[in-house]
């Protein structure tokens, strides 16, 4: 089973954002940071999942069984219900990407179990320079 861990970091809400993605396969791990536009933390959390799914496709890992691990209860609940009042477009895009897999499990994990993706997201935030 492929495991996808995602997290987002936002400086301000809304503010500059970044996604952290950790992909774990039986053979290896992949780490990715992705800058995101200025947006709310919730929007960034959905974007992180979508970027992770697209990266899996790029790597040719879009088949078999997938477990998506998030520490955002909103993202987890929205994917389970297949509905999000303010983020339906993001949910729909994620569900389209998930169709490639035989089985997809959505898993909420506490922050402490999502540290890899969390650190990647924090590292991906643009550096603020002051004079």
UniProtKB/TrEMBL annotation:
InterPro entries in alphabetical order: RNaseH-like_sf, RNaseH_domain, RNaseH_sf
Please report the stretch or stretches of sequence annotated as the RNase H type-1 domain: 1-126
One Pfam family this sequence matches: RVT_3
For this UniProt entry, the molecular function terms from Gene Ontology, in alphabetical order, are:
nucleic acid binding; RNA-DNA hybrid ribonuclease activity
Query: Do you know which CDD domains this protein is assigned to?
Result: RNase_HI_like
* Name the UniProt record assigns to this protein: RNase H family protein
Organism of provenance: Latilactobacillus graminis DSM 20719
């Amino acid at each position: 089973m492929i495991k996808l861990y995602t997290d987002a970091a936002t400086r301000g809400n809304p503010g500059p954002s970044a996604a952290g993605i950790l992909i774990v396969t039986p053979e290896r791990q992949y780490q990715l940071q992705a800058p995101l536009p200025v947006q709310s933390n919730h929007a960034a959390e959905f974007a992180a999942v979508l970027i992770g799914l697209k990266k899996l496709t790029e790597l040719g890992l879009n088949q078999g069984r997938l477990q998506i691990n998030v520490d955002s209860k909103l993202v987890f609940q929205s994917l389970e219900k297949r509905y999000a009042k303010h983020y339906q477009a993001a949910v729909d895009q994620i569900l389209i990407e998930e169709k490639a897999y035989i089985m997809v499990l959505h898993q909420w994990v506490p922050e402490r179990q999502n540290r890899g993706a969390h650190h990647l997201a924090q590292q991906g935030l643009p550096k603020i320079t002051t004079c």
